[in-house]
Specification:
Number of helices: 7
Biased composition (Basic and acidic residues): 76-93
Radius of gyration: 36 Å
Strand order of the largest sheet: 1-2
Largest sheet: 2 strands, antiparallel
Distance between the termini: 69 Å
Region (Disordered): 73-93
Strand content: under 5%
Transmembrane segments: 109-133, 153-178
Oligomer: single chain
Number of strands: 2
Subcellular location: Membrane
Keywords: Membrane, Transmembrane, Transmembrane helix
Structural class: mainly alpha
Mean pLDDT: 77
Length: 229
Amino acid sequence: GSHDELILNLDGAYSQLILLQESHVEQKMDHRLSASRSSTSLSLKRSISASLGNNNELSCTLPFGLPSTIEMPGEYDTHGNNQKEKNGEGEAPKKDPMVRLAILNKPEVPILILGSLAAAVHGVIFPVFGLVISSAIKSLYEPADKLRSDTSFWGMMCFVMGIISVITIPAEFLLFGIAGGKLIERIRALSFQSIVHQEVAWFDDPRNSSGALGARLSIDALNVRRLVG
């Protein structure tokens, strides 16, 4: 039937839905009005507190039917209350031990060992290069018959060190990159598995919205990756 016909039946489902919708709108209006009154009262108390300092009482005329006398405690801390209001909903992040992170990266231990060896070789190259250069300079002051052989030897050593650096430096970044990529993949999989096993009510929390959860999966794993790199 039409709207006018269905609304006449007060016991019908359509009429009941209309009544529920109207009552819901009225509740929202009452909630907004009460919130506006409370915010006005709070802002007015803060402004009075900032202007009077430690005065305990003030008599004045206030809007929205508020009492004319406001009790102002001496230790009223506006900044502290602001921080409590901002941090009231937040929770301190839990700290996990580094051992757990190492366990998550345990399957890549061979890759990490090879990467560490490549990093060690990379670190040794520059001190050895200094020794090679100093020895090459020293050979310039030797007799002519020994000069050619020594300079050829140290020149070949520089060439060999260049070849080693070309191999070890990319290998170092490649191996640690592979280990870090595997760790990111594992952390994101475990995080996503934990998310999808939560109860439905857990997703009603604004902190657990789809955008926030997506940001956690993307950013948090990358922050962990920096530890491995």
